[in-house]
Write a structure and sequence with these properties.
By secondary structure, this protein is mostly helical. The chain has a domain at about 65-104. Helix content is about 40%, strand content about 0%. It contains three helices and no strands. The termini are far apart. About 0% of the residues are buried.
């Protein structure tokens, strides 16, 4: 490609030389005339916060940011690995055992 061809190609792409096509904006909230929203269609309501039935009875876990001794955490991690559990499950079991033992 020589210099003249390159200049011609670049001039064709220039937004200042050739008139650019007019782009009309689209209203994203406009409902198409051929399709009206249906009240019973749950798929269209996905933007609303909903919870599945199985989540209504689960235990809520919160992150409190407690500071624990490093040696205890390492031992708990080892127990979790050997028992094929998650670390929080092992720690919950230990805390529940402590509460059972020390309830009045």
């Amino acid at each position: 490609m020589n210099k003249a061809e390159l200049k011609k190609k670049l001039s064709e792409r220039s937004p200042l030389v050739t008139p650019r096509p007019v782009i009309t904006p689209v209203d994203l909230y406009d409902v198409p005339k051929n399709k009206q929203p249906q009240e019973d269609d749950d798929r269209e309501k996905s933007h609303n916060r909903t919870f599945a039935q199985s989540h209504s009875h689960t235990i809520v876990r919160v992150n409190r940011g407690y500071r624990l001794r490093e040696d205890i955490i390492k031992d708990m991690k080892n127990v979790a690995i050997t028992s094929n559990k998650k670390l929080y499950e092992v720690m919950e079991d230990a805390m529940l055992d402590y509460l059972k033992k020390n309830r009045h």
